[in-house]
Design a protein that fits this description.
The protein is an all-alpha fold. It has 2 domains: 57 residues; 60 residues. It is built from 4 helices and no strands. Helix 3 packs antiparallel against helix 4.
């Protein structure tokens, strides 16, 4: 009987107190977990906001690059125009050279053969005068 007295069965109140303490512990643990999840969520949201801001900046920079970037067609047109301008300038210089060679030949500073060699040179070769 002594053994039974030392080891008493818990009373209803003891069980209720144990359940109440367990409930309080469980609620505290849930509260801690929810707080940790909330902190993580807030931190993650902040990181996403920072990333969104960076992407916005990158998009703005790309828009500027696209708006100022030249196309291949544009470059082809400009190079073609430049080539045409250079050909015109070279033709004018060739006309001057031809006139100079002709004048030098008339003044007998160049022989007809020398004048002919100069006139038949590139880029705008002509028949000898």
């Amino acid at each position: 009987m002594d053994n039974q007295n030392n080891h008493q069965e818990p009373t209803f109140h003891n069980l209720l107190d144990s359940v109440k303490n367990l409930t309080i512990d469980t609620e505290q643990k849930f509260s801690d977990v929810l707080s940790a999840v909330n902190n993580f969520s807030t931190h993650t949201d902040q990181q996403f906001n920072k990333m969104n801001q960076r992407f916005d900046k990158v998009e703005n920079r790309l828009d500027k690059v696209e708006s100022t970037m030249v196309t291949k067609d544009y470059l082809d047109d400009k190079l073609s125009d430049l080539r045409g301008d250079l050909v015109i300038l070279m033709r004018k210089e060739d006309t001057k050279l031809t006139a100079l060679v002709s004048l030098m030949e008339k003044k007998q500073l160049l022989t007809s053969e020398e004048a002919g060699k100069i006139i038949t040179m590139e880029p705008f070769a002509r028949n000898p005068i």
